[in-house]
Amino acid sequence: MADHPMGGDPLRSGFEDPDDYGFETRAIRAGQPHDPRTGAVVTPINPSTTFAQDAVGEPKFGYEYARTGNPTRHAYQECLASLEGAGHGFAFASGLAAEDAMLRMLAPGDRVLLGDDAYGGTFRLISRVHGDAGVRHAAVDLTDPEAVRAAWTPETRMVWLETPTNPLLTVIDIERVAAVAHELGGIVVVDNTFATPYLQQPLALGADAVVHSATKYLGGHSDVVGGFVATSDDRIAEHLGFVQNAVGAVPGPFDCYLVLRGLKTLAVRMDRHCASAAAVADHLSGHPRVSRVLYPGLEGHPGHDVATRQMSGFGGMVSFRLAGGREAAEKVAVSTEVFTLAESLGAVESLIEHPGVMTHASAAGSALEVPDDLIRISVGIETLDDLLADLDRALATA
Ligand SMILES: Cc1ncc(COP(=O)(O)O)c(C=O)c1O
What we know:
The chain is of the alpha/beta class. The protein has helices at about 25-30, 70-85, 95-105, 120-130, 145-150, 175-185, 195-200, 235-245, 255-265, 265-285, 305-310, 325-335, 385-395; strands at about 55, 60, 90, 110-115, 135-140, 155-160, 185-190, 210-215, 225-230, 290-295, 315-320, 340, 350-355, 375-380. It has a seven-stranded mixed sheet, with helices on both faces. Strands 10-11-14-13-12 form a five-stranded mixed sheet.
């Protein structure tokens, strides 16, 4: 076998030192050595559930059983960890499975602070699954980092924040919240789903762990459900590695391949998502049927300055409120043609939804309830004029 510079050891990274390369290069190469047997440039989908051992307890290449470790998952984990600037990455079967693994750091009686605007499924997981197991929570306005101090109790262990948030696009200052939480002895978890590591690097801003719904921009094509946690904290990494194997909510090799494939075009997709979302937000801002546009790229957005500082682009998500209330919002949601009425976000096709009834229904009646005149759109990468004309047509029905 030729001594290929990318190495014949499947556990070796695609680069000697991925940190020497830029984001886009790492997205394509990190963790993905050329196949040493064939020279294939694409990491194979390896379906094997078990791996041969040289002697009892001595696996040939470090792999034993696919729940514990799988070569396709390994490549994906190395690649995305590199993109987040993390020492460790762990892939899970969904974003919520990834969140669950992280929340399992909390014991009964421990308390977590979460933003008062967050993905409804996160709230449900914290309040109804971990809540039933004795973990307590409080929703606070994380736009004011001092609110973290005010809400802190001796049992508080973790601050969970999303930025920009789903669905209100609220921007949280990661550095300032992390400074307060660390001073008080807690850890900070950032859900980086909306921004992606291309636009925002939470670990560099002081977060202890980053979680993702890889179902969204990372996969990018609405064809895979996945989740991820990245961290450089060895204690958190040890916990995640244990839970990943002990609980087993792992993605299959084909799912890992799909996200790994999505990562390769993340940068170019995000550039287009950002450009089109900015144009859509501008367009909606001048529309008489729209009472308010929520997009961090707009100068009037309350989080615009923080977003400008901590993000390299404002993302592809836009929310807006309708002057005509809930009825108008529901009419608009069902009237688009290019924007598909559907849950989820972050893929090449544009989507529209009514969060109050759809993605955030589980937050109804709680501090995280969203306004019923709110529409959330995920701006895709179709022809911009088609997107603007589609929204205009739909708004005319409201
Ligand atoms: C911000 C955010 N975090 C986490 C999740 C959960 O991810 P998944 O649906 O992959 O379990 C979602 C899903 O919409 C989300 O929007």
